[in-house]
Amino acid sequence: MADLSPIDLQKALKGADYPAAKDDLVSVARSNGADDGLVKKLSETGTKRFDGPNEVQKAVFGNE
Fold this sequence. Notes:
The protein is mainly alpha-helical. The chain has 4 helices and 2 strands, in the order αβααβα. The protein has a two-stranded antiparallel ribbon. The longest helix is centred in the middle third of the chain and has 10 residues, at 22-31. It is globular, with a radius of gyration of 10 Å. The two termini are 19 Å apart. This is DUF2795 domain-containing protein.
């Protein structure tokens, strides 16, 4: 598995509506053909609801 990037995350969540529940974003990522590793990282975040893509990025990648 290649390293995941914020760009990969943006592509995976294309078309997502915010605010969004984590489970909804996982479904969007899967339907967009996201890498299994990215889906796993997203599903394992401690956050249950996201107000926007920046919150998702912080939850998945931390303070990179």
